[in-house]
Amino acid sequence: MAEQVAQVDYYVGMLPHKAGEGVRVLNAIKDAGVNLIGFLGYPKARKAEIILVVGTGAPALGPIAKKVGVALGKKQKAFLVTGENRPGALAEVLGNISAAGVNVETVHAVSGCAECFGALITVAPQALKKTAKALGI
User: Fold this and answer.
1) Does residue 1 register a pLDDT over 60?
2) Looking at the 3D structure of the chain, how many domains does it have?
3) How many Cα neighbours within 13 Å face the side chain of 103?
4) Which of 5, 9, 52, 75 has the fewest beta carbons closer than 10 A?
């Protein structure tokens, strides 16, 4: 199975690092009818940084988060790569990007099944077109 690649939108925000804060934001997004592709959260400087990933064309999350008192950064672009889980799958994808001369800023990889993998890959905004070409989209 060949990898599937999609360009997606994501937002970054900061929350208090305490129980229930992430759920509060996720419930607001759910109540607005937005289906997230990805959610990442981790402690950073005594707060919690969150990354919210949506498909291109999804409603803007800024106003939704603002209703529950959370400020999100501007919408940014990333690549969501999914495919068959096999040794070296992610290394091949990142190798294609590297061969194009693009420096990857972040990679978040996880799988919901033993047979598949998924990775959210971010690059500098000026490298989006070059990365898309390297990934075959």
Assistant:
1) no
2) 2
3) 3
4) 75
Please say which residue of 27, 48, 73 terminates a domain: 73
H helices of the chain, in order, are 21-31, 62-66, 89-99, 128-134
Q: How big, in percent rounded to 5, are the helix, strand and coil portions of the chain? A: 25, 40, 35
Is 64 strand, coil or helix?
helix
> What digits encode the pLDDT tens for the residues 8-35?
999 999 999 999 999 999 999 999 999 9
8-17, 73-82, 107-116: lowest mean pLDDT where?
Answer: 107-116
Q: Is residue 22 located within the same domain as residue 62?
A: yes
Least Cα distance to 7 among 58, 51, 46 occurs for 58
Residues sharing a CB contact under 8 Å with residue 19, sequence separation 6 or more, in sequence order: none
Task: Write the pLDDT tens digit of every residue in 44-68.
Answer: 989 999 999 998 788 899 999 999 9
Q: Is the pTM of this model over 0.85?
A: yes
- 76-84 and 116-123: which strand pairing? antiparallel
